[in-house]
Design a protein that fits this description.
Blueprint: H1 2-13, H2 30-51, H3 57-62, H4 69-80, H5 83-96, H6 101-125, H7 130-134, H8 140-173, H9 178-226, H10 231-241, H11 258-271, H12 276-279, H13 288-320, H14 340-389, H15 396-420, H16 427-450, H17 456-475, H18 478-482, H19 498-514, H20 519-537
Helix pairs in contact: 1-2, 2-9, 2-14, 4-9, 4-13, 5-13, 5-14, 6-11, 6-13, 6-20, 8-9, 8-14, 8-15, 8-16, 8-17, 9-13, 9-14, 9-15, 10-13, 11-16, 13-14, 14-15, 16-17, 16-19, 17-19
């Protein structure tokens, strides 16, 4: 253990040696490298501390349920606000103005859904994973096989997008070549999860969330100070600087047709309630009251973060859009449109703050991939291995061993996929991830809690139908069928599938459940009342399968 951490610390300290290509625009940023190394060393120290307390399955998956509501709220925010929040949403505001807010509003609107519909029953009925809740009155093996399969698909897709984003970000900002950057991220995430489990992952997410919020607050404050702390003045200057003029303050530029708008909104709002790495966080607190408070804290933190990112987006338009320092001869923003927030950081805070934001952006990726890896490894070790394969007879030692082996496999697989998809657009992967979560995990979870008529057959068949519909419609959409595969026109004319894939999922769950006349189906319907009582009382023992 000590040798491993020493080796990785030395590896992180030697990161400039990986630089094979010069970074775009600013030259090698020694401040960013230094802050990055400090963050890596600090997180490795946390991992070493957490490893001494990671002695059981409960510790590894849920930090022993000892995380406080405040800590969990910060960790949820850290898990949720990835580099896409800071870089992606600010870039959308930079290009589309008002319409860029649809993502931040959609993400934020998901938290009341989780608070009022899911948080309490999830904490009371589950132990470590989403499948614990789904299998409370449904058959263990088929429902866990479905849940684990869906979770692995979501985790891998999300990991690919994060790894590609990490590779491009580090290649641009730190001067590493792409492959070395992806390998470095993969190695670090494996170490965090392999040794530290949920406790290390939680504190890494907390530190990252605090750094991200502090960086956003400084940028937003510096932007507002340039315009007398007047939003009207900021918007006026943004309109004057943007090529679309006052069109940036009107909706319709990013999502023009109502079907795509509704589909995107559904994916953003309900997809969050189906993400396995987010749902796992409710098992780290001691009781349902702490779970509810966690969501309240997370909602406030995420809300503040997105509010400041909106100011950052419009501030970038007003301060950077026409500044020749941040443009090439062709007029494109250096490093691509997704780097506009980085250029704003340099404009308002100089090289030191630029280095800080670079380190924050990288830390967000490390925190998210660590949470994803833990969710993926727990789905395989706890749901597939311990329950489906070993039928509940696996020892804690064996389950921990399989979890760590799975962590290594996921790390290697994410590195290979990140390298493989280097040249591919990742926008459709992110939208597909949320669409799958909204179309498979969320409908089954919601109906398993609130609908007496749900049966195992309905849950598995309907959930799989939603998952497959989301995948197929995304492939047939303009984003993939035309832009990636090169066809003249798309078979499915809309960009986002959630509206139709969610309808297919709910319809499939209903149809296959109400037509299930088996003795097992009757038992599952009758067991619903016992589940409701157990949920209200917070009893987590199983009724029987």
């Amino acid at each position: 253990m000590n040798r491993t951490l020493t080796f990785v610390a030395a590896l992180a300290a030697a990161t400039p040696a990986f630089a094979a290509t010069p970074p775009v625009g600013q030259g090698l940023n020694g401040i960013a490298i230094g802050m990055f190394v400090v963050f890596v060393v600090a997180t490795l120290a946390i991992t070493r501390w957490a490893a001494r307390r990671n002695n059981s399955v409960a510790d590894h998956y849920a930090a022993g349920g000892k995380i406080t509501a405040m800590q969990n709220g910060w960790a949820i925010a850290g898990d949720y606000m990835s580099a896409a929040s800071l870089l992606g949403i600010s870039a959308l505001v930079f290009t589309s103005g008002y319409d860029g807010l649809i993502y931040s509003i959609g993400f934020l609107a998901s938290w009341p859904i989780i608070l009022f519909l899911i948080a309490e029953p999830l904490r009371n009925l589950g132990r470590y994973t989403l499948a614990d809740v789904l299998s409370y009155r449904l058959r263990q093996r088929p429902i866990r096989a479905f849940s684990a399969s869906s979770s692995i698909v979501i985790v891998l897709l999300y990991l690919v997008s994060q790894m590609v984003g990490a590779g491009k970000l580090v290649e641009l900002l730190f001067g590493f070549n792409y492959t070395s950057a992806v390998v470095l991220v993969g190695v670090l995430m494996v170490i965090y999860v392999f040794f530290g489990g949920m406790l290390a992952t939680t504190w890494i997410q907390i530190i990252k969330a605090v750094m991200l919020l502090a960086g956003c607050a400084f940028m937003a404050c510096m932007v507002m100070s340039r315009f007398g702390f007047s939003l009207n003045s900021l918007f006026d200057h943004a309109i004057a600087a943007h090529g679309k003029q006052d069109a940036i303050m009107r909706p319709g530029g990013l999502v023009s047709d109502p079907v795509s708008a509704v589909s995107l909104g559904l994916a953003l709002i309900f997809g969050t309630a189906g993400l396995p790495h987010i749902l796992m966080r409710f098992f780290t607190v001691s009781n349902v009251k702490a779970a509810r408070k966690s969501v309240l804290y997370a909602t406030g933190i995420v809300g503040m973060g997105y509010a400041m990112i909106i100011i950052i987006g419009f501030g970038t338009i007003a301060l950077v859009a026409k500044d020749p320092l941040y443009h090439t001869a062709s007029g494109a923003v250096i490093g691509g449109i997704n780097m506009v927030a980085v250029h704003l950081a340099h404009a308002v805070g100089g090289s030191v703050f630029l280095g800080f934001i670079c380190a924050v952006a990288f830390s967000t990726i490390l925190a998210v991939v660590a949470g994803l890896t833990l969710a993926g490894s727990s789905a395989i070790s706890h749901d597939l291995y311990a329950t489906v394969i070993c039928k509940g007879r696996a020892s804690d030692k064996d389950e921990m061993r399989v979890s760590r082996i799975t962590t290594l496999v996921l790390g290697v697989l994410s590195i290979l996929l990140g390298i493989l998809f280097e040249k591919q657009t990742i926008a459709f992967i992110v939208s597909l991830t949320f669409s799958i979560a909204a179309s498979s995990n969320f409908p089954v979870l919601l109906l398993s809690i609130y609908w007496r008529g749900l049966t195992t057959r309905g849950a598995v068949m309907g959930g799989m139908m939603g998952l497959m519909t989301a995948v197929v419609l995304t492939i047939l959409s303009p984003t993939v069928w035309v832009q990636v595969l090169g066809h003249a026109s798309a078979i499915y004319p809309y960009e986002y599938p959630a509206l139709f894939s969610m309808l297919v999922a709910f319809a499939g769950i209903y149809a296959f459940s109400v037509t299930d006349r088996s003795a097992r189906g009757v038992w599952e319907r009758n067991a619903y009342q016992n589940q409701r009582v157990d949920c209200e009382l917070g009893i987590t023992t199983r009724s029987g399968h």
